[in-house]
Model the fold of this input.
Amino acid sequence: MCNPLVFTLNCGSSSIKFAVINSVKNKIVLSGLVDFLGFSEISISWVIESEKYNKKFKKSISYLDIIRFIVCNILKQDLKMYDYISCIGHRVVHGGSNLKKSEIITEKIIRHIRNASFFAPLHNPINLLGIQAASVCFPHLKKKNIAVFDTAFHSTIPKTSYLYAIPYAFYKKYGIRRYGAHGISHSYVMHGASEFLKIPVPKLNIITCHLGNGASVAAIRNGICVDTSMGLTPLEGLVMGTRSGDIDPAIIFFMYNKLKMNMKDIENILIKKSGLLGLSELSSDLRDLEDKYSCNSKAKLSIDVFCHRLSKYISSYSSLMEGRLDALIFTGGIGENSCLIRTITVSYLSLLNCKINKESNMLIKFGKKGLISAKDSVSILVIPTNEELVIAKEAVSLISN
Ligand code: ADP
Done:
């Protein structure tokens, strides 16, 4: 039996989320965020029993030094919990075609994660930096690092959903198919919905919307994911903070052939300059756009396009529910907090019998969980996601086995 504390690391390109979880009590002991505020400044903030702490670094420091600070200053000195940590769970965005469930990290698993980097160039290499840093900072736990993949939850989607209609050889030879992402979050809210609705997971038919800076929808039938909006990479699907989501691929030919742009610039536009930012020409942060929704036409347009695309996905996924939709779920920073996005999106869904209750929709934000649907509607739920708890649970289950 292992000690109950798990350290979780979720390393991204603009932030690192970390936590210490008591896996027996399923309780977060410490949660923290490293925010890369610019090239020259980073901020580390953390919360222990509702007490908030913050430290700013003026110069840019390496991933290893950031993790070292967390381990040496917070876990060892302040909390003296370092010795009680029994394993480390890492969120890894892309498992590629070889990694379909959580794995204890070995050299072979690292090779597979590195190989899948081509499909998640912004994420997997950084996830590997976190794994490397953890092995330096926890030398005694080298064999107790676990990778939990964002693609794993979607490994059940059928061929009809994951194949692109391009020559089959691209799938066979190179693994070009849809893999999805945000699976850890979709899985967490699925279990939350099952508990809330008192419907066992194997009987649950729901559509889950994870709406953050990255955004995706999943169709879950009888507790199994049958379709999701992200594709080969996390670029496909919904309108996101800075990512375009679905576009006609011919736009890329136009940019390349007619505008003579190079591939790097095109990639940069679709990943970093599109989505809410590209449409609004103001901000990728929904809060900024919501503030200007009624006074700035581009802010309004970007939000309207976001909701239109989202409602199209939800409507099409309803056709996969075999006639019964138990609930529509919202999660992620936007899904949990934006009553405007929820209102506009659901306004398109009357054919699915989805109707909002205005009062409860207004009240549910800032980490609250609850029903926001009208009495005669399909259940619409807001469930705050908690990827860290899923990662910790997976880690303990693998280590215990
Ligand atoms: P990430 O994908 O980086 O984890 P988050 O899940 O934290 O992203 O979501 C970030 C998004 O959530 C941003 O667009 C932000 O504006 C939005 N958001 C956060 N809080 C609120 C709020 N109170 N109202 C509206 N939008 C919010």
User: Anything to note?
Assistant: The mean pLDDT is 94. The first helix runs from residue 63 to 78. The CA atoms of residues 147 and 180 lie 17 Å apart.
